[in-house]
Write a structure and sequence with these properties.
Radius of gyration: 20 Å
CATH architecture of the largest domain: Beta Barrel
Largest sheet: 8 strands, antiparallel, barrel
Shape: globular
Number of helices: 1
CATH topology of the largest domain: AOC barrel-like
Mean pLDDT: 84
Strand order of the largest sheet: 1-2-3-4-5-6-7-10
Low-confidence stretches: 4-20
Structural class: mainly beta
Number of strands: 20
Helix content: under 10%
């Protein structure tokens, strides 16, 4: 059993020199944004650890040359899942870390991988200049041409088949111009969230094995903001502080009592996997949406105590 200690470079939100915010518009697909994949790699868990995790890493850059912005996207999940939680319908989203060069208009950049189809999904969020307090969301998908070889230990190592970079485009969707207090117009309406102020604390003495369970683990706390309704559904989420089978559960309370909807979460500390569920209560009926994210965190050590935080993280639901 492993208990990962993630030490990740400083997040996009903390260091980026943010450029001019974008005009988002109020109709579908008003803007497109060019990107380029420069490198990609997948490493399986290997035959000796068939229940272990695979790692996928992708490097991509904004094709707007004036930005010069480079992102490293990394995710890890049990190999059998192939990018979907428990091999089901919920694709796993992960944050892309800004490399510290150039500048960007984006608040978050995220990716997800359908490994069986070698398809990568990308999303990014940004502030809107034409609607104060609103955030735009652009999404896209790109197929990756992959070559795989089997290593001596039986594991797979996969890289891009061509040395040439792969270009793709993300497309902006409709951005809410006013706060929406109603229910989604359709149960099929795409839902996503932005996580902010993530914090988790636990004790792990220097030199400890990654298989050693951390002591005094608080589990995560964070702010959860629904991206579709301009923050009407804004929640403060806290863990129960109790762990069972390496998993924390927690509830989310509507900030200022503004929302009648509910949300809760589960965090698997062994896999660093967060599952979010929001439920809507609409005129006697209800429905829910589920999002899954691989959470990378920067952990600051003070003696035996580690405090783990992140910048804003975007988590979506199904594939886009």
């Amino acid at each position: 059993m492993r208990h990962s200690l993630l030490i990740i470079p400083t997040s996009l939100a903390l260091l980026s020199e943010v450029g001019a915010i974008r005009i988002c518009g109020n109709s579908t697909g008003t803007s497109t944004y060019p990107w380029r994949v420069s490198d990609a790699r997948y490493d399986s868990a290997g035959s000796s650890t068939s229940d272990g995790s695979a790692i996928v890493a992708v490097s991509m850059v904004s094709a707007n040359r004036s930005y010069g912005t480079f992102f490293e996207c990394v995710a890890s999940w049990p190999e059998a899942w192939q990018g979907f939680e428990n091999g089901g319908d919920n694709i796993i989203w992960s944050d892309c870390i800004w490399a510290g060069n150039g500048f960007t208009d984006d608040t978050t950049v995220s990716f997800a991988m359908d490994w069986a189809k070698h398809s990568m999904y990308v999303s990014h969020t940004f502030a809107c200049s034409d609607a104060q307090g609103a955030d735009g969301l652009a999404t896209g998908m790109v197929p990756l041409d992959i070559n795989c070889v089997t290593t001596e230990d039986g594991s797979q190592a996969c890289t891009l088949a061509s040395k040439a970079s792969i270009e793709f485009t993300t497309k902006g969707g409709r951005t809410p111009q006013e706060p929406d207090t109603g229910c989604p117009s359709s149960v099929d309406a795409y839902q996503s969230w932005q996580l902010e102020a993530w914090k988790r604390q636990y004790e792990l003495p220097p030199g400890s094995s990654l298989s050693d369970p951390p002591k005094g683990d608080t589990g995560p706390s964070f702010v959860l903001r629904n991206m579709r309704n301009r923050g009407t559904d804004l929640f403060n989420c806290t863990s129960t502080g109790e762990v069972e089978n390496e998993k924390f559960t927690g509830s989310c309370t509507a900030a200022d009592g503004a929302s009648t909807n509910t949300a809760d979460f589960m965090f698997d500390r062994e896999l660093n996997m967060l599952t979010i569920r929001q439920q809507w209560h609409c005129d006697g009926s209800s429905f829910d949406a589920v999002g899954v994210g691989y959470v990378q965190a920067t952990c600051d050590r003070r003696g035996d105590l580690l405090t783990c935080t992140t910048g804003p993280i975007w988590i979506g639901t199904k594939t886009l």
